[in-house]
Amino acid sequence: MGEQTIIRFERVTKQYDNDPPVLANVSFEIERGKFYTLLGPSGCGKTTILRMIAGFAEPTEGSIYLNDKLINRVPANERQVNTVFQDYALFPHLNVFENVAFGLRIKKMNKKDIQEKVTQALSFVNLEGYGEREISEMSGGQRQRVAIARAIVNEPEVLLLDEPLSALDLKLRTEMQYILREMQQRLGITFIFVTHDQEEALAMSDEIFVMNKGKIEQSGTPNDIYDEPINRFVADFIGESNIVPGRMIADYQVEFNGRQFECVDGGLRPNEPIEIVIRPEDLEITSVAEGKLRVKVDTQLFRGVHYEISCYDDSGQEWLVHSTKKAELGSEIGLHFDPEAIHVMRFGETEEEFDRRLEAYEEVEQHVR
Ligand SMILES: Nc1ncnc2c1ncn2[C@@H]1O[C@H](COP(=O)(O)OP(=O)(O)OP(=O)(O)O)[C@@H](O)[C@H]1O
């Protein structure tokens, strides 16, 4: 375990009754002082991971370590971990100050220290001077900040945030994203943030775990995940992509659309079936003669910063283009892209599907030989 590791999951499985496991054999490490995001569709197991870190649920199998200590059975109140919930879970009959002071009063801290710590926590979330307000007098965004102040006042080592922004409107949500990110950097606390919003994850995180059906499909920095998705599930979930089937010819050479193209990816076997990803913003509109692909423009939407243009090639494959240039509906155009724009993925939506397909592929290979 690295020096920086604060939390470690080792082959953790969580199963309720005889249902299929909601988490299956999950292993990962969380480093101190970073902003992590668990990203994935509803029901993939994000909250289950948070609940196990907080101590509200126990793993069925496997081990969870906090600061190198096995904590599978350590009660929630003995962990240096605090949670901010989606519904804030504030006490409506207490004012802002008392909501934030609650944990400190339970710890029987003296009055002067409580005053100092609560004032500091409120100023961290830009709510200085709001202590005497009732919760009912606070807006959604302000309540969210009270909930965060209540969590950080306990000086946890890890702060868990379960979709804390999902009840806010878009403008407030963006504002809170800045506040949270900035606060995490100032406090240096490890944040583990749960969301199903990929833009939020990309904007805020040092590291993202992309989850699907009780597994982590891929972990990495926002750039890694966006630029180098490992499979179709991740590519589809993070941003918009053109995903087409193809074949590896050799290192740095792929075939798709019946033609060969240079790329910068290698390391896969010649002839291996692959899928290639090209992001819509990496496709450039040009003349048919100059384009690497020839397509017909089908629809076009103005999105403010760019046009979102849907085109089809002769084989009926759709190509989505984000372009600052406008195209003419129904016209034939060329699409240009650089070798760096081609990202090669192993074929199949998920790792499991990939393994099944590879087995089938190897069987066919043996027959051919
Ligand atoms: N106490 C429980 N008993 C039985 N099944 C449960 C229990 N808690 C969670 N589950 C199931 O575990 C799965 C994962 O739930 P979890 O809340 O971790 O998902 P999630 O990714 O956080 O989803 P969401 O984004 O909708 O909150 C779901 O299918 C859920 O129904």
From TrEMBL:
Alphabetized InterPro entries for the sequence: AAA+_ATPase, ABC_SmlMolc_Importer, ABC_transporter-like_ATP-bd, ABC_transporter-like_CS, Mo/tungstate-bd_C_term_dom, P-loop_NTPase, PotA-like, PotA_ATP-bd
Domain ABC transporter: 7-238
Sorted UniProt keywords: ATP-binding, Cell membrane, Membrane, Nucleotide-binding, Translocase, Transport
Entry GO CC: ATP-binding cassette (ABC) transporter complex
EC code: 7.6.2.11
Assembly and interaction partners: The complex is composed of two ATP-binding proteins (PotA), two transmembrane proteins (PotB and PotC) and a solute-binding protein (PotD).
Name assigned to this protein: Spermidine/putrescine import ATP-binding protein PotA
